[in-house]
Hints:
The chain is mostly helical. The chain has helices at 7-28, 31-38, 42-48, 52-76, 82-99, 101-111, 120-139, 149-168, 179-193.
Amino acid sequence: MARSIDKTKIENIRNSAMELVVEKGYGGASISEIAKKAAVADGYLYRFYKSKSELVNDLLYSLLKELVDNMELFISDTKLSVKDVIEKLVRLLFEMANQQSRKIKFLFVLMHDYNFEVHPEQRKRIFDLCRKAKNKGIKTKEISSAVDEEAIYLFTVSMPIQFLNLRLKNFFGKSSIGEKEIKMAINLSSKILL
């Protein structure tokens, strides 16, 4: 008879892994600590993930998929200008920071850890979406043909994540993440790209 899967335990494992990676970095978060924090045995965790690397890569893949799926919806919406797309994407990141800051922190940590790379399939999808945004912007005369896909990603995803990380760390003594900060990030991204 097949063992039943306790979805709550799996979610606890995933949340614990994310929290520990944020707190201690990838190298500092062990499988034993993740299992202990999730209140499961190491063996239970290994039933679903062969290694810490597999678990963390799965978390990164899932989180990026969520962002990329939304990015695709925004870019594909013919009613939205490129400026509207930038605004929706920045607002999505800020909403995530306000509601689930752990996700933004996790993304930030892994974006700066050379042990991890974005899955090739996702990297291609992100590049293709940035190309679609560029082509849409050129067609509507919102973006110069000199702007490349990397710049679009940098100023619509990476820069807002960096900004959010600074706020979440209270780096400059400022921790608010409200409408004022959202508008500032949208304006910066828009001015650079449009």
